[in-house]
Specification:
It is a single chain. By secondary structure, this protein is α/β, with parallel strands linked by helices. Helix 1 crosses helix 10, helix 2 crosses helix 3 and helix 4 packs across helix 5. The chain is built from twelve helices and eleven strands. The protein starts with a helix and ends with a strand. It folds into two domains: 133 residues, Rossmann fold; 104 residues, Rossmann fold, CATH 3.40.50.2300.
Length: 283
Amino acid sequence: MRAESFREGLKETGYVEGQNVVVEYRWADGHRERLPDLAAELVARKVSVICAGNINCALAAKAVAGTTPIVFLTAGDPIEDGLVASFSKPGGNATGVRLFSAGLVAKRLQLLHELVPMADVIGFLVNPNNPTARDQLKAANTAATALGLGIQAVEASDERQLDEAFETLAQKKVLALAVGADPFFNARGKQVVALAAHYRLPAVYEWRESATAGGLMAYGTVLADAFRNLGVYTGRILSGAKPADLPVLQQTRFELVINLKAAAALGLKVPALLLAQADEVVE
């Protein structure tokens, strides 16, 4: 879906992959330490534009790109992260799309509380290596306090720690989980969903793919829009536009996906009012 949406954006600007443009893909598969070498490899191949799908990719590209244009997708603040000078006038060789993912923590907790009201403590899974982890946890605690709930934070930055995090939640008898926004969790989405199912832990996720893959519920930015805009900006730069002149786009359309099959397996009945809010229901 993401690659397809990116191609749609390219096509809007007159570029069709395999016809008048070549797209070279590189994947770190959730291993952040691989990113510097992958970015350097692309620069060595003298690509016209580097597209970076998250903040870690963007920072790795920025470190080695020189004057090569960068189009990024990030859930963080690109100004604080040193990618651009401002949203309206990036001023350098990078621009892109900003998601409001980390800022949706409170909404995800609210939705989870509506679906699992008996859970008075919510688990919150974060990657301590993510620059936004502290802000996400702070937002989770603030939102939980407003709802009269507690937060049990667990950390994971590799597969072994993921297993340990879920074991900790089980030992603490936590009855629901919110998965933090992080590229590693996205790359290990099926593993996270499987662990939640194994421990019979109702969970809310960042992206729709987790819900369609068997997870209970997801609430986040409509990624198809974001990747289409990534493709549009890439095409415009290929046609001669300068990143410095392209304002950072801010995605403001969100979607709620609920998986009824997962809810039934957990013995949960989804309230009618919550179902009515869903943009997609998986049956």
